[in-house]
Design goal:
Layout lengths: L1 H10 L8 E11 L2 E10 L4 E3 L13 E6 L4 E17 L4 E17 L6 E7 L1 E2 L8 E7 L3
Antiparallel strand pairs: 1-2, 2-6, 3-6, 3-8, 4-7, 5-6, 7-9
């Protein structure tokens, strides 16, 4: 019995929250121009924040960065498509733009002779009661 009492706490593990999964894709639009699409799938009750938040205070905006090759240039702003929720957020005490369910972030880029593309997406996710620390997910893509 005593052994069971000591072994039980070690058998229980804290649930690791990972409410967002990602899919990445790239397609060539025309010679030297591409669209990179990052698709976030969120568990019910969780939100991810816009790349275009109106303030530097508050939640961490979703951002896309490219690490290689060196000849990448972005074209325009990140385009967001999904179930947008805009308004006052109790957790931050301010107006925010966030998405629930599924959202796609698209960025057009230009690059000469693009054989591969490496980068990261950085994001923050919250539910009605708590936020998880910002997370960075790497990706590597090859145009078709």
């Amino acid at each position: 019995m005593l052994l069971l009492m000591f072994a039980l706490p070690f058998g229980l593990s804290a649930q690791i929250l990972d409410p967002v999964t990602w899919d990445f894709e790239i397609k060539e639009l025309e010679s030297g121009k591409y669209e990179v699409k990052l698709n976030a799938n969120l568990e019910e009750g969780w939100y991810i924040y816009s790349a275009n938040l109106p303030s530097d205070e508050g939640p961490i905006p979703t951002s896309i960065s490219f690490s290689s090759p060196d000849n990448i240039a972005t074209i325009g702003k990140v385009i967001e498509e999904g179930k947008k929720v805009e308004g006052f957020d109790e957790l931050f005490g301010m107006n925010v733009i966030k998405f629930s369910s599924n959202v796609s972030f698209s960025q057009k880029i230009s690059a000469k002779e693009l054989e591969y593309l490496k980068g990261n997406v950085r994001f923050m996710t919250c539910d009605q009661h708590k936020c998880l620390p910002p997370k960075q997910i790497p990706f590597e893509l090859q145009p078709e």
